[in-house]
Structures are given as C-alpha cells and as structure tokens.
Amino acid sequence: MTNTAVGLHIYDLTQSTFMVSLVAWFSLVPMIAAGLYGGAIADRFDRRAVALIASVVAWLSTVSLATVAWGRLETVWVFYVITTVNAVAATIASATRQAITPRLLPVSLLPQAAALNGIAMGFMVTLGPAAAGVLVARVGYEWTYTVDVLLFVFGFLGLWTLPSIQPERTPDGRVMSGLAAVRHGLRYLREAPNTRMSFVVDIIAMTFGQPIVLFPAVGAIVLGGGAVTVGLLTASYAVGSIVSSVFSGRVTGARWQGRAIRAAITSYGLAILGLGVALAVVTLGGWSVRSSDFADVNVWGLVASCGCLAWAGGSDNISAIFRTTILQAAVPDAIRGRIQGIFTVVVSGGPRVGQMFAGSLAAVSVTWLPPLVGGALVVLLVWVAVARVPSFREYDALDPQP
To answer: Where exactly are the transmembrane stretches of this chain (predicted)?
Structure first.
C-alpha cells in the first residue's frame, strides 16, 4: 500500500514517470547488499531478534513518510532516501523470516507453508495498491501513510510470540561475519547444484517472461481502456497466484519437486507465449483500439490476455512453492540465512532485468513480440538447463539434497 502511495505522491510532485521509476533503481544496489549481508547476519545472531529489528526499521520508515506528509515537507529526494531504507530493512526481514520457517515446521509441511505465503503475496499485490488508490483519493497521503503505520503493528505480533531462534553452527564450529560469510555463501552455491538450479530457472523465467512493463502500451494502443486495462492485467496475474495456492493441496505433496518446477515454469512460459499470441492477433487483425475510454476496449483481447496472465501467475506461484521448499529443506540451517538472502536478491533483481528485456525489444519492434519470443525462450532454456543437471531433475522430497 505504501509503495503505491509513494509512487502516486512522487508523480503528483513531479508529473514524471521517470522520477517515479527512480524509486526502484535507487534502492536496487542497497537491496542487493542487504540481501547478501542481511542473510549473513541471520546466520550469526538470534533470527527472531534480527527479524524484529529489521521490521522496526521498516516501520519507522513508514512513520517517517507519515511525518513528512503531515508536516508538508515533501521533496523528492526525501522519498528516495526513506523508501531505500524501507527496502533494505524489508529485504533483511524477508530473508530472516524465510530462514526461520524450517525451524518451526517439519519438512513435510514446508510446501503448504509456501502455498500460504503465496496467498498472502497475492492479496498483498491486489488489495494493497487498490487500498492505496482509494485512500489517497478519499483522505489524502497523510492518512494513507498513517493507516499503514497502524496496520504495520500487527506484523510485530507474530514475530514477538516466537521463541529465540539461534542459528546452528557449521560442522567445524566456525562463526563467520561480513564479507567472509558472504563469500562462503556464494561458494556453497557452486557446490550445491540443486539449490543453484532453483535460482537459474527462476532467472530464466523472470528475464524472458516479465511483460508488466508493456501493460501501459497495451492499454493505450493495443487493447484500449487505458489505466483500467493496466489494472485488470496486473490483477489477473495476482488472482492466478491466489487461486493456485488455494487449490494447491494435492500439488504440494509432489515428491519429484525438480520435475514439478520444470513443469510449472514450462507452463509459465506457454502462458506468456499465449499472451503474445493474443496481442499479435489483435494487432495484426486490425482490431487494435487507441482509446483510454474503457467502454471502447477490445473485450475479446482483454479476456484472452487476462486469462493468459492468470495462468502465468498460477504457474509462477507453483514454481515458487517448490523452489522455496527446496531452499528450506535442503540447505543446512547454518547457512540458510545467506542462501535466503541471495534468493531475495534474485527475486528482486530478476523482474527488473526482465522489464529491461521486454521494454528494449518492444522499443525496436512491436508490443506483442517480447512475450511471444520471451515465452518461447523460457520453455526452451528451462528444459535445456534442467537437462544439464540430472540431480535437479531427480530431486526427491523424501531425501532433500542441496
């Protein structure tokens, strides 16, 4: 909710989409550092304490936004600084929470926990922006930030009730910190093919199958409908994620999780390919609508595109359930925080690279080409990558190996 409100606030101050986009770019490098070093911190200190402290910092950044808004102190650089602090704290908190989960549940329940997390994430990206839009329009930025300050308090309650969770030590009893700990985590990945491959297949999917940057153009010059179309396309992906989690009961019991990931990402690539086909049919068939009025939207094209994106969201979520489970079940507790930190970096950075691919290709060609080519590349590259690592293809949930 706050991220959406900040974007709207900066646009109101500057009338520049570019200035809004700088929020993500200013925070990117600090987020990468936070993922790497934050994971090392989670592997050295009480994880409950690390998660609480990081959450307090994130909460204070939201308090700062409310203070700036109420005090009429709005300047663009202030928003960049506060949102960067928030992103850093949230990255550390996220990596630490993921490292905590396997200490609270048996391995057999980790897929179900990941599915519940998928439901939470789905609601976050659908209800959060919608709530921000309504609150900003009705009561202004001051109350929008204040509401989130109050809601944030509930986030502390779950963490506060946890016991102390000290990370386990490596077999040789060494305690590393700083850059040495980060290097140790990266070395571990080189020696852990299944864990490494879970990152590789996600990077492939996000690099070539991330069409969200195209949505404004789709709403403006392909399907029509403007901002409403963009909102429906975005929401469809999240709805697919929620539905797949709600009905994932039988799926989460899959034993051969490497094959399940390959199947899910193949399904994701086909869904993105389907989106490209739908947009191509509308464009090449001469049915494009250049209107921001939703009453003029190409209904067939919108329904087909939303269906493909819901399919993609569900497939991506199933992949995420098993990738998360492999990280939590196969990685030793002593190094789990660092690996979760690297995972957070991949999840945060991958979509940005994907947006660059889609945006650059669309700039020199047509809007429908990036999802068409990207979806095909996702399918092809995932099958090639998995074929090169037989241990990932044969990964057995009953005998998790990194």
So the answer is: 18-37, 49-71, 77-95, 115-137, 143-162, 199-222, 228-247, 268-289, 368-386
